[in-house]
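Thread: Modeling a multi-component assembly for a lab meeting

Hi all, long-time lurker, first post. My supervisor asked me to bring a structural picture of a complex we are working on to next week's group meeting, and I have zero experience with this. I have the sequence lines for every component (341 residues in total). Could someone generate the structure of the whole assembly? Inputs are pasted exactly as I received them:
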Amino acid sequence: MPETRILQAIDDDMKDAVREATALLRAGEIVALPTETVYGLAADALNPSAVAKVFAAKERPSFDPLIVHIASRGDLKKVAIVPAEIAETVAKLTATFWPGPLTIILPKHPDIPDLVTSGLPTVAVRQSAHPVFRAINKELDRPIAAPSANRFGRISPTSASAVMKELGGRIPLIIDAGACAEGVESTIISIEPRDGKKPVFRLHRAGPITKEQLQEFGKVEKVKEKTGDLPHAPGQLPSHYAPLTPFILLENPEDFKPEPGKKYGLISYRGEDDSPYVNLHDWETVESLSPGSGKLAEAAIRLFFVMRLMDEAGLDAIIAEPVSETGLGVAIMDRLRRAAG
Ligand code: AMP
Ligand code: MG
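Re: Modeling a multi-component assembly
Sure thing. I ran the full set together rather than chain by chain. Output:
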């Protein structure tokens, strides 16, 4: 593989970037693209050999299915078969949350290669809201398979430079449109109809579309995780989004037992001087997810960036302060727990 190029897709450069990325995708190549959640590694979803390159570049096991992205809601019927009993619910959800960070698992259309869905009879579908991704998806006029643009099990990239660190030398092109607006991966649900009642949404992965937002349309239940099972969402494997540095989610400050001579860094929520976490130890470094104000949306955007920064700081361990588990806090805590393995 020749060196990886980075092309800016901002303002006047957007058209050229869209054209180049689309040409590569059409030729069966893989390209890292910005989405509103995290950067994705894109391939033509209908081209199995292109999809195989995604698995190879990521070192992703073949049992871990990819999300398929469509350019318009009308394209849903090209990638999935929506069962009549949930058609109304799917219409409401897509009208409300698409384009956006909600992925819906549906029975797959026969045109979708088995490699994309890891042999599952279902396909995970969403429509990205990112203007650059949308433009490429529309120009290509085919569904795009795109998991996060990181090596398997590692921290998801929220910037082009993070993609370069993960996949540089393995892919021909990264389209750079700056930092991602959401910062954590899409919410993933499947839908179970219930006679005469609102459907049940099985939450396969917590994300930017919160339980509170989904509850208007159905009853939200978490998917139970069983180790040893084929994962429904390997983003849901107990150890994922993992820094190379030991990572501890410190639910109680009293449980912190530092070893002499070791260097510890703190990921704090607000980073205020009066925080029990900030005052707990003479930290080598402190990074805040939402400095001062404590906003979950900002914390989500900064989460993977801060995890990466800490991972590169030469620490003996990274200590993370929990955030409140409401709204977006559910997705943030999910990622912190998985980083802690
Ligand atoms: P990534 O984009 O890397 O976060 O990965 C996409 C996530 O979607 C993975 O964790 C997949 O397991 C999950 N996913 C994709 N297709 C399906 C499916 N058919 N059923 C359940 N989960 C899926
Ligand atoms: Mg991923």
